[in-house]
Design goal:
Shape: globular
Helix content: 10-25%
Mean pLDDT: 92
Radius of gyration: 17 Å
Low-confidence stretches: 16-20
Order of helices and strands: HHEEEEEEEEEEEHEE
Structural class: alpha+beta
C-alpha cells in the first residue's frame, strides 16, 4: 500500500513539469531520474506490433510530425506493445477527431482482449449511450465502470490519459483528475465482469501482467507522449 501511495505522490510531483513541457516524446530530467521511459519514441514503430502478427501493420497507422495516428477506415487493426507490463503508471496524450472511437487496453494477453480505458467522442458517437449507466463513455473502464459525466475533457485538443496499476488496484485519470478507481480479482470484480460483454471470459482482467493495446476502431485518433513508469 505504501508503494501505491508513493506512485500517487510521484505523479503530483511531476505533473507541473509534465504540463509545462514543450517538446513532445521526450523525457524531462525529472522523469528520467525517476525511471520513466518512453513507450513510443515519436519517430518509428519500434516497440509496437500488430495484435495479430509480429509485424507492425502495413496500413492504417501513420507516424507524422511526432504523432502516432490511427487513420479513418485504414483497416490496419489494433497494435500492441512487444513487451508486457505489471505494475505501472502509463501516460498518453490523445486527440479525438469528430465522432471518433478508440481505446487504450491493458492486461492484454490474447485476441486483443483486456481492460480498456475508453477513448470516445461522448457527444457524437452512439456507443456513449450504449452499455449501462454511461460505462462506455470517455475514460470509463469500458463496459464495466462508468467515468463521471462531468470530467475535464478538452474538445479538439490533446488530453492526457493516465492509468495507474499497483497489484489489483487500478485507477483511470484524465488531465490530472482521477475518474475511475477499482479493485480487481475479488468478488465484486467477478460480478462486474459477469454483467458485461466479457462474461464469456472467466479470467477477464485477472492477469498479473500483459500488453498495452491501442485500438483501431475505424476512426482517426492521434497519440503522442506515451510514457511509462514501472514499479
Amino acid at each position: 500500500m505504501k508503494t501505491y501511495y508513493s506512485l500517487i505522490i510521484l505523479w503530483f510531483s511531476l505533473s507541473t513539469i509534465a504540463w509545462a513541457q514543450n517538446a513532445d516524446n521526450v523525457l524531462t530530467q525529472q522523469e528520467s531520474s525517476e525511471g520513466w521511459k518512453l513507450l513510443w519514441d515519436g519517430k518509428t514503430t519500434n516497440g509496437w506490433k500488430s495484435s495479430g502478427s509480429e509485424a507492425f501493420p502495413a496500413k492504417g497507422w501513420n507516424v507524422e510530425e511526432g504523432v502516432l495516428k490511427v487513420l479513418k477506415d485504414g483497416k490496419g487493426g489494433d497494435i500492441i506493445t512487444t513487451k508486457t507490463y505489471k505494475n505501472f503508471i502509463l501516460k498518453a496524450d490523445f486527440k479525438l477527431t469528430e465522432g471518433a472511437n478508440s481505446g487504450i487496453k491493458y492486461f492484454v494477453n490474447r485476441g486483443g482482449i483486456g481492460c480498456e480505458y475508453q477513448i470516445l467522442d461522448d457527444v457524437r458517437h452512439p456507443d456513449a449511450k450504449a452499455g449501462v449507466a454511461g460505462n462506455r463513455t470517455l475514460g470509463s473502464l469500458y463496459d464495466l465502470i462508468a467515468a463521471p459525466a462531468t470530467k475535464p475533457y478538452r474538445t479538439q485538443e490533446f488530453n492526457t490519459a493516465m492509468i495507474i496499476v499497483q497489484g489489483n488496484h487500478v485507477e483511470h485519470w484524465l488531465n490530472g483528475v482521477k475518474i475511475v478507481d477499482y479493485e480487481r480479482n475479488n468478488q465484486m470484480w467477478r460480478a462486474l465482469v459477469n454483467y458485461s460483454k466479457y462474461k464469456g471470459f472467466p479470467d477477464f482482467g485477472d492477469a498479473a501482467q500483459g500488453h498495452f493495446l491501442l485500438q483501431d476502431h475505424g476512426d482517426e485518433v492521434w497519440f503522442k507522449n506515451i510514457k511509462i513508469l514501472e514499479k
